[in-house]
Design goal:
The structure is a single chain. The chain is about 0% helix and about 35% strand. It contains no helices and 8 strands. The protein has about 90 residues and is mainly β. It has one domain. Strands 3-4-7-8 form a 4-stranded antiparallel sheet, with no helix packed on it. Strands 1-2 form a two-stranded antiparallel sheet.
Amino acid sequence: MPTDEAERRSSGGILIPATAQQQKRLVWGEVVGAGPNVRSAEEGDQVLFSPEDRYEVEVHGDDFLILRERDVHAIAAPRVEPGSTGLYL
């Protein structure tokens, strides 16, 4: 039985029908600066965010993303305790 061309398989081999809605995918980024009122993120932290919840800005020819702290879903940082999965906001 042929499968619909829009169907796809997960990496685990699960068949995903064409009618299944694709989830939003979060991405990781590095904090290069933070405002004075930011409580959780620090420079050098890796943060998990939705690419749809961001603003782009160019500064001296370099492109940066601006996020509100409330749009950060999780933080992975060296200061997190060993064995911990990270800081989730």
